[in-house]
Design a protein that fits this description.
heterodimer; A: mainly alpha; B: 187 residues; mainly alpha; 7 helices
């Protein structure tokens, strides 16, 4: 990174190893190749299927001056549709309020994007779908208004000009996004405070259990200086991860620790069982060398 | 210092996946498809909804290809699209997941590395959950995705100083959380 930011944690010398590994895993630890293959095919089919619409919509976009014009056209169609609907229904309660159709409406942005795919003739006939969420239209409109007001007042405080995006609806989308994020942040901060308070009150909290590999690593570290403690951890590992993926590694370490404790008979029995179960294991040579060094032979 | 797990990264999508796409979209898809998948996950899109969300992002990319600026800003532009799509998905499908779905990790040389990779991924998600949403976004984009701060500020539509401040707070929280977990794990 060359924009003057602090050194990344991954390359800072004092970052704990487990954090470096975690950051690397977040970046590289998920395979998405199969997902992207599926999506690539679907996307190709979708775009090819709307190929006539796409080229027509490109012309539409150029003709009416870009996405601002498309969104404005969609809003205009929505307004006309609402007026027509009211006239037909005689103003029943189910009619969409006029303010909704003409006001800021984030869903219209996506609708505008989607309608770009449709031929121009269909666009003129399309009925406006105003709301697709469970919220009532009034709640949504007031939420957007609040979000916009917050965005403007925040911008004023920060003396940062409100971003003049191409359309009012995009501003509302960003404002609503920001308001939602802020609401979530506040809610999460509150939840965190409650959690922290609860944790302070807990007495005698149960210790965090080590993971399969961490438990084995811990046993390995203790194997030379404190083999008895290492054996306890290996027993715990055998109980918790009886069918775990590190069973061979656990068995190998157990045999070596038993030898260190002078329990050669047990070590030999376990080595014989290991050889029978894993006849091609890469660890066998190491175990046999160890047995030869201590004068034991399976 | 303990040996760090080697994780092989595959950052570019194989060409066959993008073969049916228009040329400009194909390049963006191949180059940034994995980044879009990860971004949507960071933003809380559920695994079952990820295919649809990725498709929606690239459909918007296709529709707004005229907005695609120089390559250096592609990720900040893509991330802002991911933000909108993720919000729409969450409204549609409910609150974000708290537990990550443990997908198959990249090829590991040994079983031990495989297990370590999975555990590292689980720890990574656990640490991210300790952050408020605003700090989490800056943290993953800087520390995981190696995005420059100027691009991050653009992606999140916030002032540069605000982004720095969030990163600083996020780092403090993350390091404190790592210390807490390490202290609890000691026998």
């Amino acid at each position: 990174m060359t924009d003057g930011g602090p050194p990344p944690l991954k390359s800072a010398g004092d970052t704990p190893d487990e954090l470096v590994r975690a950051l690397q895993a977040l970046r590289d630890g998920n395979r998405d190749a199969a997902r992207l293959a599926r999506v690539g095919e679907r996307l190709g089919a979708q775009i090819a299927g709307s190929g006539a619409g796409a080229s027509a919509s490109s012309g539409l976009v150029r003709m009416i001056g870009g996405k601002a014009g498309v969104a404005a056209l969609a809003i205009g169609v929505g307004v006309l549709g609402v007026i027509g609907y009211r006239m037909m229904d005689g103003g029943r309660e189910t009619a969409v309020p006029a303010g909704e159709a003409s006001g800021a409406k984030p869903s219209v942005v996506m609708q505008a994007v989607q309608t770009e795919q449709q031929p121009q003739a269909q666009l003129q006939q399309q009925e406006p779908r105003v709301v697709v969420t469970a919220e009532s239209s009034e709640e949504r409109a007031s939420k957007v208004e609040v979000a916009q007001a917050r965005s403007v007042s925040r911008a004023r405080r920060a003396k940062v000009p409100v971003v003049e995006t191409a359309t009012a609806t995009e501003t509302a989308t960003e404002a609503e996004t920001e308001a939602e994020a802020e609401t979530e942040t506040e809610a999460e901060t509150e939840a965190e405070k409650r959690k922290a308070d609860t944790e302070k009150k807990v007495v005698g909290k149960a210790p965090v259990q080590l993971s399969e590999s961490a438990l084995l690593s811990q046993a390995r570290r203790l194997a030379v200086e404190k083999p008895e403690d290492a054996l306890k951890l290996l027993r715990e590992h055998a109980q918790r991860f009886a069918s775990g993926m590190l069973t061979p590694e656990r068995e190998v370490l157990t045999i070596e620790v038993l030898r260190r404790l002078g329990r050669s008979g047990e070590a030999t029995q376990r080595l014989q069982a290991f050889e029978a179960k894993y006849p091609h294991s890469i660890y066998l040579r190491r175990l046999e060398r160890g047995a030869a060094a201590t004068g034991q032979r399976p | 210092m303990a040996t760090r797990a080697v994780i092989v990264s595959t950052t570019r999508v194989p060409c066959e996946s993008a073969a049916g796409l228009p040329p400009q979209l194909r390049d963006v898809f191949a180059e940034h498809g994995p980044f879009v998948c990860r971004s949507l996950r960071y933003l809380g899109v559920h695994e079952p909804d990820l295919d649809d969300a990725v498709q929606e992002v690239f459909l918007v990319v296709h529709q707004r290809s005229s907005d695609y600026e120089e390559k250096g800003r592609a990720r900040s532009w893509l991330y802002s699209i991911c933000t909108r799509v993720a919000h729409a998905q969450r409204r549609k499908h409910g609150r974000r997941q708290k537990e990550p779905v443990m997908l198959e990790t990249t090829a590991a040389a040994t079983q031990l590395e495989h297990v370590q990779n999975r555990e590292a991924l689980a720890l990574g998600w656990q640490l991210l959950q300790a952050l408020p949403a605003e700090q989490r976004e800056v943290f993953v984009l800087y520390e995981v995705e190696d995005m420059p701060m100027s691009e991050i500020a653009q992606a999140l539509s916030c002032p540069l100083q605000t982004a720095y401040s969030r990163l600083h707070k996020a780092r403090e929280r993350i390091l404190a959380e790592v210390q807490r977990l390490s202290a609890e794990a000691k026998p």
